[in-house]
Amino acid sequence: MRTPILPVLLLVVAVAGPARAQDTLDPRRIFGSEICEVDGLTPAQCDCAWKFLQGRLKERELRVAMLLTAASSESSADLARKAGQALDASNVSDRRRDELQSETSALTVEAEDACVQ
After folding, report:
1. With contact defined as beta carbons under 8 Å apart, do 65 and 100 qualify?
2. Among candidate residues 23, 11, 10, the one with its CA nearest the CA of residue 82
3. pLDDT one-digit tens code per residue, 24-35
């Protein structure tokens, strides 16, 4: 008995669609594309810098910080839009966003200095 292909494809798209959207907003992926690639870090340097940030920020803070980074993405309007929506849903105050953005910026510079040798 043959399985009709259309229902199977629709199921795959329905399941994979939301997963891809979540993957797009993965903090580590954002860090890689919006910081490491832009700053020209090697994969090893990027891993080092990521671990540095993970050691300094709580998981939720790091997620919000990467969403802030993605929300100002110049390379992907779609990423910026999705990150902006996720930030709005996070209910993080503007004051805390500003603090996190400043802290993350300083920590990223520190991380790159520590990891780029």
Report:
1. yes
2. 23
3. 799 999 999 999
